[in-house]
Amino acid sequence: MSNKIRLGILGGGGDSLIGILHRIASSMYDKYEIVGGVFNPVWEENIGFANQIGLPTNRIYVDFDKMIEEELKLPVSERMQVVSILTPNFLHFPMANKLLENGFNVICEKPMTTSYDEAKILQETLKKANTVFAVTYTYTGYPMIRQMRQMIADGVIGNVQKIDAQYYQGWINPVIHDDELRANTWRLDPEKGGISCCIGDIGTHAFDMLEYVSQLRIKSVLADLNFVYEDNQMDVDGTVLLRTENGVKGVICTSQIATGEENNFIVKIYGEKAGLKWEQENPNYLYLMQDGEPLRVLKPGHSYNSEISLDGTKLPPGHPEGIFDSMANIYKGVAKAVNGEKYDHGEFPTMIDGVRGMSFIEKVVESHQKGNIWVEI
């Protein structure tokens, strides 16, 4: 019998980008084997997709509840060990909560839930379950982001003076200006997406990333959000000022109506001695900037990088690694935790990241609604 971790998947069927990303990532280090799940609520599409990707259909279930029921009938040595939740946002909480209650380890897409209250409930459920829970803030898996985190922790740039993240996309621009599309896109539906679109979808990536690399906790926010049309209930653009617990200030600029932009995520941390900059569209370059010195460029795979960076590098220097590799490093970290192996706490985002992300979303919306005032997280 295979000694790989038995993985179940919820959602992510058809041409879902997230589905492809998770399936490929889970296979990269030969740690997981997909054994079943529910890829689509429509049975014909669900079973058809399983056939398409070559999965045995005996553990493809008609719905989530049936999956739990049938998996629990199996011996512990055969049932799913980890379940990945790749569904629309409103399903994250009920699925994750029930999985934890029944002893499963969980990998959940972000945002973790649709409200902070749900996130707190989930946190309590996890404490009782004592299983592994990861939230896929995917970009934390990049080797050079992990190098950035370690360099800041080692004092290479000195005391942090400013934190800055920009995340610009343009995909919703044609949607927002079309009445019919605007009314029928699930990310613009509060019942399915929660209280925020742009901040909930990509702003949380920026928030988690700044806390991850700087290891500073953001204490308060002041937000100004943009909805474009009065009948649109969900933000599609926003700017958030930040204050950390130790007084460092910063900013998050996010947009999904930045016309022509693809996935322009930039992270910048400035210290008293130097600055570090990373760009998601060129993820293999970490820029070290110092006054009076030439710009230095660090790349993955070299011996000058940190242990956690090298552990997440699969190829020799000069061979580009990308988003599949980044997600794979998160799956690798979860595998270590599930198998009881030693791992670095920076190897995958946890429940704490998910809870703080939900608090961030709600406080940003509150700040905007109250007239752009400072609100504590």
From TrEMBL:
* Signal peptide, first to last residue: none
Q: Where is the Gfo/Idh/MocA-like oxidoreductase N-terminal domain?
A: 37-137
GFO/IDH/MocA-like oxidoreductase domain location: 145-276
Which species is the source of this protein?
Answer: Urechidicola croceus
- GO-annotated molecular function: nucleotide binding
Pfam families hit by this protein = GFO_IDH_MocA, GFO_IDH_MocA_C3
Q: Which protein, by its recorded name, is this?
A: Oxidoreductase
